[in-house]
Amino acid sequence: MSTTTAKSARPAYRCAECGWTTSKWVGRCGECQTWGSVAEDTGPGGAAPRTAVMVPLRGAARPIAEIDVETSRSRPTGVGELDRVLGGGLVPGAVVLLAGEPGVGKSTLLLDVAARAATGGRTVLYVTGEESAGQVRLRAERIGALADTLLLAAETDLGTILGHLAQTEPDLLVLDSVQTVASSAVEGSPGGVAQVREVAASLISAAKERGLPVVLVGHVTKDGAVAGPRTLEHLVDVVCQFEGDRHSRLRLLRATKNRFGPTDEVGCFDLTESGIVGLADPSGLFLSHERHHVPGTCVTVTLEGRRPLATEVQALVAPSMLANPRRTTSGVDGSRLAMVLAVLQRRAGLKVGDQDVYVSTVGGARVVEPGADLALALATVSSRENVALPPRLVAIGEVGLAGEIRPVTGTARRLAEAARLGFTHAVVPAGSLAAGEAPEGMRVAQAADLGEAVRLTRAETARPEVPGGGTSAK
Hints:
Elements: H1 2-9, E1 13-15, E2 21-22, E3 38-40, H2 80-86, E4 95-100, H3 106-119, E5 124-128, H4 133-143, E6 150-154, H5 158-168, E7 172-176, H6 193-210, E8 214-218, H7 231-235, E9 238-243, E10 250-258, E11 266-272, E12 275-278, E13 297-304, E14 307-319, E15 327-330, H8 334-347, E16 355-361, H9 373-385, E17 393-395, E18 398-399, E19 405-406, H10 411-420, E20 425-429, E21 443-447, H11 450-462, E22 472-473
Parallel strand pairs: 4-8, 4-9, 5-6, 5-7, 7-8, 15-16, 17-20, 20-21, 21-22
Antiparallel strand pairs: 1-2, 1-3, 9-10, 10-11, 11-12, 13-14, 14-16, 18-19
Helix pairs in contact: 8-9, 9-11
């Protein structure tokens, strides 16, 4: 009887991701909804609370004003776009997790970072668990990343990697990748929940003790999330996502977690045959360079974090031979296009119900924010009426279901970027700019609804010459 009571006092199964407990095995966690994470709880039973033995103190507690902060300041990596995302560079003792899809360029970027650090006089240990040392050497030759103090090791055992740390005492550790390393003290295959947790915890402990910055490469699932236990993202200091379309050269680096800097900065890179190059001014990648402006094109300025990017939206409206006309998009959300088309037909009287509509962006850019709705609508109207918009026009604003144009964040910053690129016309939501905020030399028209925006655009198209002075028309 006592044995049965003891067994029922403690749940027999526990989720390795979130700690949810249950009395019987299930394939999916009832708390975090993760598949395959529930396993038998082999921990000690009993309802009595656990106790810990007091250990000697490493150092006495001190007033917070006496803590030295110089050792916690960031050091630049030599890659400006990476430093922008990290908040200035790598902090001693910080652990950075860089995740991304296969082939996006994670290893190439970190090999370049390691070579720049080694060229600057620091000792760098680059541990590869996915490739052989010869493969990494060939990539280093291709991108010019050979340095005397860049040490390379092809290892997948955690104990061996810690031994390399003790032997080389590097100033920077790069591990590619954390899912390929396993510890002999923990059961399970590399990449499993227990193994990833043990490897990450051991490397984080070594980083904090030595003041060693560590960069870990992480795999992602088919949904784009970091593979492995969720606790991995909680343990590290910085989590970065490296994104990019396989058919485009542009790569974007975002920080989803950063204990030392902002999380709204975006780094832009260009993937070339000779490696990855940072782009301080990537706006030109998303604009076409046609001399003769054609109907169906409109430029908008999106915000990637704090960075404004000018992006050209192209639309093609053609008669349909099908009962259900096509709605095809590339780089634009299909649901946003469907909503904008419905508003155009209902509020602006544009007949597109029997037309095929194709919308795309230039340069493989992805436009997901609502601030591009107005440019999408004006490009569609231009293509449907076969009338080109002014060649130096930008449109910024969110389109509502009632036909109103709603203000978006950072309008002044977007217009300043457009003016820097040479644009002289702009259509923005009414009330988004105060008097005198329009950039010099730009004519800014403020529209309250979609119909007014179309009329103002037609008026600018018919205007023979564009006056300067940064006036604002409403």
